[in-house]
Design goal:
This protein has 89 residues and is mainly α. It has four helices and no strands. 75% of the residues lie in helices and 0% in strands. Helix 2 packs antiparallel against helix 3, helix 2 runs parallel beside helix 4 and helix 3 packs antiparallel against helix 4.
């Protein structure tokens, strides 16, 4: 796997409420962003990998829905996570 257990814990500790809180919205968005970057890099060298392309589209949709949820729930947390991860919106 491209992420070890320790890397995931660091990711959740940085963006979530703690290293064991894997269900927080911010932690999930950060994890999806990391996975999207990995799959995008894979698709640059493997242009005909349509299964990975479909997975990428599905991940982007999941991340978008989580971002929409966070925007409705708490706009301040939404703006912080977008700024930290360098997303466009």
């Amino acid at each position: 796997m491209y992420l070890t257990k320790e890397e995931k814990q660091d990711l959740f500790a940085k963006h979530g409420k703690g290293k064991d809180d894997t269900g927080s919205t911010e932690g999930q968005i950060a994890l999806f962003t990391k996975r999207i970057a990995y799959i995008s890099g894979h698709l640059k060298t493997n242009k005909k990998d349509y299964n990975s392309e479909r997975s990428l589209v599905m991940l982007v949709g999941k991340r978008r829905s989580l971002l929409d949820y966070l925007m409705k729930k708490d706009i301040v947390r939404y703006r912080e996570i977008v700024k930290e991860l360098g997303l466009r919106k």
